Amino acid sequence: MKRTWEFQFLLMYPKIQNGAILIADTHEDDKRDGFYSFLQKIESNKIVTTQLFLMGDMFDLFIGKIEYSVQKYQKYIDMLEKIALNIEVFYFEGNHDFSLSNLFKNVKTVPIQLQPKKFILKDNTLIYLSHGDKYCGFIYNNYTKIIRLSIVLKILNIVDKMCNNFISKKIKSNQSKKKLCIKIKDFEKIIRLKILQYNIEQKSWIIEGHYHQNSRFKINKVNYINLPSFACGGSYFIVECLKHKKEFFKELGC
After folding, report:
1. Any idea which fold 14-253 has?
2. Pairwise pLDDT comparison (196 vs 36), residue with the higher score
3. Closest among 233, 234, 214 to 47, alpha carbons compared
4. What is the signed CA dihedral for 41, 45, 48, 53, rounded to 10 degrees?
5. In the predicted model, what is the mean pLDDT of residues 209-219?
6. Is the pTM of this model over 0.85?
7. What is the largest CA-CA distance in the chain?
8. Distance from chain centroid for Cα 226
9. Distance (Å, rounded) from C-alpha 27 to C-alpha 180?
């Protein structure tokens, strides 16, 4: 039985509600519009959910301080804001979509600096949510800091506009050629080393996107879930907290 102070401590964390949806790595671009169709279904209640967790890389290129990408995806911004008037929407920034906080009034953005973010289920199980590109090595970690600097993004935006958005278009073109649905060799071994940097409680859960592996396993009494890429098969996870059952997450198709 948990002590009183432990319960008070847990009250600090936001709750993941039964029926919440977690969706990751939709990688929306000119050739993929499944994410927008998904949002339309939520807005029209064809898909019913209590909360919506966008786990990052929802677009191939969506940077809040680059005008081209903001203009291109304005209808998504409007749709998400509309949905967030009725249900809680969290947007975990990824490596393809970041610096988004100024674009949203109702959507709760979670930058990489605040990831993993702690949540709890109704039985007080701790859940750590993250896009998944944190703790990926010294060089990459420093790159993520530099590319998010306001001065860097301001310069990139100016140069991009001067060359008719060539930089943005080139990045999008390169991204569209990438193979998204590839199994990573020794994935569990990679995550095992990474989890050491999380410093989390045993019997907790870590849920990430980024890797597109659609897998789950346990490491040192920590439950790990890597979400499927929506771009690979149109699937997402829904939280289903059943009494006396610890399988909290089931995969559904769209």
Report:
1. Purple Acid Phosphatase; chain A, domain 2 (3.60.21)
2. 36
3. 234
4. 50
5. 94
6. yes
7. 63
8. 11
9. 9
Record the tokens describing residue 159, joined without a space.
């140069």
Q: What is the DSSP letter of 32?
A: B
Pairing of strands 21-23, 62-63: unpaired
Q: Is 248 exposed, middle or buried (0-12, 13-18, 19+ CB in 10 A)?
A: buried
Query: Pairing relation of β-strands 205-208 and 126-130?
Result: parallel
Q: Domain boundaries in the chain?
A: 14-253
Mean pLDDT within 50-74: 96
Within the chain, residue ranges assigned H as helices are 4-10, 34-43, 67-72, 74-83, 138-147, 150-162, 166-176, 187-195, 230-233
Do strands 126-130 and 108-110 pair parallel, antiparallel, or not at all (unpaired)?
unpaired
pLDDT tens digit string along 119-142?
A: 998 888 899 999 999 988 889 889
Tell me, rounded to whole angstroms, the distance of Cα 186 from its chain centroid: 23
Q: Which tokens in the block code for residue 130?
A: 């993250």
List, in order, residues 6 or more apart from 206 with CB less than 8 Å away: 116, 127, 128, 130, 195, 198, 200, 222, 223, 224, 225
How far, in Å, CA of 92 to CA of 112, rounded? 8
Structure tokens at 227: 């979400």
Q: How far is CA 22 from CA 51, 98, 136, 141, 245, in A?
A: 9, 18, 22, 25, 19
